[in-house]
Every structure is written in structure tokens, then in C-alpha cells.
Amino acid sequence: MAAEIFGERLPAAVRYAEHLATSGVDRGLIGPRETGRLWDRHILNCAVVNETIPEGSRLVDLGSGAGLPGIPLALARPDLRIVLVEPLARRVDWLNEVLDDLGLPIEVERGRAEETDVRRRWGGADVVTARAVAPLARLAGWALPLLRTGGRLVAVKGASAEREVARDVVAVRKAGGGEPRVVTCGAGLVEVPSTVVLVERVDRQRAARSSRRREQRS
């Protein structure tokens, strides 16, 4: 399973798991109870999300924390150009140490998605990813301004994804997103497929026209 997903980068994925289980726990990035399910719940769960990401994408991973999903995606997809955005200095330090050890060409930015410097440096991305960062409405407000028109927010969610979409769809539209879609990734590769919400950044004028038409029909 892991070999099929990571190919020749499997040894690096194993090394990453070791970092999570040791210094990741010691420095508070991963809970001690998670060490027994690092592969299924964290690493593979994130790596299979690569199914939703176009070839050669420039990707911004928001609130990366322990590098999830950004590092597993980089290991599974060497074609991606990835930056990890994380506001906490101690996590940034850990990420840089791990990336140096793994030899992955990933940048780490200390900051928040809504900050002007982050938007200036990393705006126009093809894909923004996030896992367990915020509810969809708030996440869309942070992520969509970082995307080019036609770019895609890939939010790794859980079983409540459908309810979250139904609750937050209006806020997503107002933030410049299209209709959120819930998809699953990793069927046949992982025991429990990952649930992902996809939101395309649309042209704001087009979105406003569509919103007016919906209001007129209601």
C-alpha cells in the first residue's frame, strides 16, 4: 500500500514517520496516542489526496503543523511545488529540521494566510490544502484569496464534511468560491478513504451574477 503510493520515496516516508513518532511527539506536534496510527490516520490519509491535484501544481499548505498534508503530498508527488505556511515558530523550526533531513525541496513560511506578506509572496497558487485548520466558511476566507482564478481549495475533512458544506456554502460563495464538492480519495489503496472538500476559486463578478440569479429564482 505505502510502496504503491510513495514509490522510490518510501524510505523517506518511513523516515518522516519516525520523526513524527519521536521529536514530533516530544515537541507537541503529534499526540502520544497517535503514534500507533501514524500511517493510516495521518500519512497515507494525506498522501492519497494527491488524486485531486493537477500535475505540476504550485501548492500552498495552510496551517501545516506537523507537515500534514504537505509533506506526504510532496513524497507522493515529486512534480508538485509546495510551500508550508505555519504561524508557530516552534513548528516552523521542526518542519525545517525534518525537511533538511529528508532532502525535500519544500519552502516553509512562518505566517498566516490572511497576512499581506503571505498573500503577496504566495498568491496565485494552483492549489491550497488544509487539514483540521478551521471550519469551511473561515477556511475559504483565508484560502481562496491565495488562489488564482480556477485554482482549487483542497480541504481534508472527516465524516461531517457534507454537513459542513450544507452549513457554509453561502459563506464559501461570498468568499469567491464555486459550489463545494465532497469527494473521497484512496479507494482501493487505504482501508478508510479520505474525505475531501473541493472548492474552485471563481471570478468574483461571475460569482456575483450567479448569486443574483439564485436570489431571483428563490
UniProtKB/TrEMBL annotation:
<comment type="similarity">
    <text>Belongs to the methyltransferase superfamily. RNA methyltransferase RsmG family.</text>
</comment>
<comment type="function">
    <text>Specifically methylates the N7 position of a guanine in 16S rRNA.</text>
</comment>
<dbReference type="InterPro" id="IPR029063">
    <property type="entry name" value="SAM-dependent_MTases_sf"/>
</dbReference>
<feature type="binding site">
    <location>
        <position position="63"/>
    </location>
    <ligand>
        <name>S-adenosyl-L-methionine</name>
    </ligand>
</feature>
<keyword id="KW-0698">rRNA processing</keyword>
<keyword id="KW-0949">S-adenosyl-L-methionine</keyword>
<dbReference type="InterPro" id="IPR003682">
    <property type="entry name" value="rRNA_ssu_MeTfrase_G"/>
</dbReference>
<protein>
    <recommendedName>
        <fullName>Ribosomal RNA small subunit methyltransferase G</fullName>
        <ecNumber>2.1.1.-</ecNumber>
    </recommendedName>
</protein>
<dbReference type="GO" id="GO:0032259">
    <property type="term" value="P:methylation"/>
</dbReference>
<dbReference type="Pfam" id="PF02527">
    <property type="entry name" value="GidB"/>
</dbReference>
<keyword id="KW-0808">Transferase</keyword>
<feature type="binding site">
    <location>
        <begin position="113"/>
        <end position="114"/>
    </location>
    <ligand>
        <name>S-adenosyl-L-methionine</name>
    </ligand>
</feature>
<feature type="binding site">
    <location>
        <position position="131"/>
    </location>
    <ligand>
        <name>S-adenosyl-L-methionine</name>
    </ligand>
</feature>
<keyword id="KW-0963">Cytoplasm</keyword>
<keyword id="KW-0489">Methyltransferase</keyword>
<feature type="binding site">
    <location>
        <position position="68"/>
    </location>
    <ligand>
        <name>S-adenosyl-L-methionine</name>
    </ligand>
</feature>
<dbReference type="GO" id="GO:0008168">
    <property type="term" value="F:methyltransferase activity"/>
</dbReference>
